[in-house]
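User: Here's a protein and a ligand (pyridoxal-5'-phosphate). What would the complex look like?
Assistant: Let me lay out the input and then the predicted complex.
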Amino acid sequence: MSGWLGSEPAVIDSAEGFYLFDTQGRRYIDGVSSLWCNVHGHRVREIDEAICDQLGKVAHSTLLGLGQTRSIELAERLVEITPEGLGKVFYSDNGSTSVEIAVKMAYQYFQNIGEGGRTRFVALSNAYHGDTVGSVSVGGMKIFHGIFKYLLFKTLFVPEPHPYRFDGGAAQCAEYSLSKMRDMLDEFGGEVAAVIVEPLVQGAAGIIVHPAGFLRDVRALTREYGVLLIVDEVATGFGRTSKMFACEHEEVGPDIMCLAKGITGGYLPLAATLTTRDIFDAFLGTAAEHKTFYHGHTYTGNALGCAAAIASLRLFEENRVIESLPEKAGLIRESFGEIAGLPFVGDVRQCGMMGAIEIVMDKATKESFAYEEAVGAKLCSAMRKRGAMMRPLGDVIVVMPPVAVDTDTLRDLLKIVGDSIKEDLPKIVRSIKVQR
Ligand SMILES: *Cc1c(COP(=O)(O)O)cnc(C)c1O
């Protein structure tokens, strides 16, 4: 916080397409999709109009004991586009609550069906599922979560498959994590309600891309042990991985799916937790049975958010956004291929439109710079001077432009990133050494 107060922050005043403008009139490419949520760019006519039209009807009315036309329409669309089996939608207003809801839903499901001993969760180390106490409890990032450990419920953590930091090949890396998950389920299986994962990519941990097949194998394992699978698609959903949802890559149908970030095209806070008919049915019963799901937020299923989300989904179709992604992912891959050879670049990772470049002190040993040197932050502020708004995860530079970015803007962004690593990074490293 002191560092931020001591710096000169950029203050965004307006935006146009894939660019942000600050109060000084400077222009930046939105290189991280306004924290991974923007899809079609800013001030998109169709979404703006959908929100204005909705304002002419109603901005918000509660979903507690009432219906609302836009929320019904969006729920129908979500059921159509998500993996088969997910037929029920529970709204909230951000990614953390969508996970909070998933966790409570899985827990109460087993209470309701008479398997009350299933009270625990299995998650991956370095997982990130949000910042509320329940979602932090299933999160595994020491730097964010360590201080709160006495506030949290105890989760069973399995090492995440992280090929760059694993001594061995990608297949062995996945196999290792899976065998640890199997051991965990062997030991605690009867106490476990669900396994929760970020499918394919662990975002906040540094865009860790899991080896192919890992998600499918986790699904098989959860079936074998009779535990639920919760997939947190808050970051990966809505085109980020080059398919609409990451689960599609491995034809996985989860029991519960969490959606937020890109759901409204990055316009308004809205989230959804989807589940199966089976789980839904377990919450039915007489009033005396108390099977209902006691969870609801004031702004659950906000009508303006739902209107924006419907408009965003329509744009996905009209602009054939998903079909345009392989070409753009190819541009990122090409550029990352060159960047990988530059000094201090330890690893480049990519899954569709999610990219990351890990900066290290020593490429051979993979040793990182000290946290307090803030090399990632310094490099991102150099990129900002070159016209790209970036935000790192430690020393991992995240490259995540809006999914619908045009190829010219994407090329400009990749050039800024590459040039900055080539020219600014060696200077940053020299200045650290001089200070020492
Ligand atoms: C961002 C994120 C969340 C939390 O979403 P918020 O809307 O910031 O609360 C949860 N899970 C994943 C995977 C995320 O990337």
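Summary: Residues 94-96, 99, 128-130, 198, 203-204, 232, 234-235, 260-261 surround pyridoxal-5'-phosphate (CB under 6 Å).
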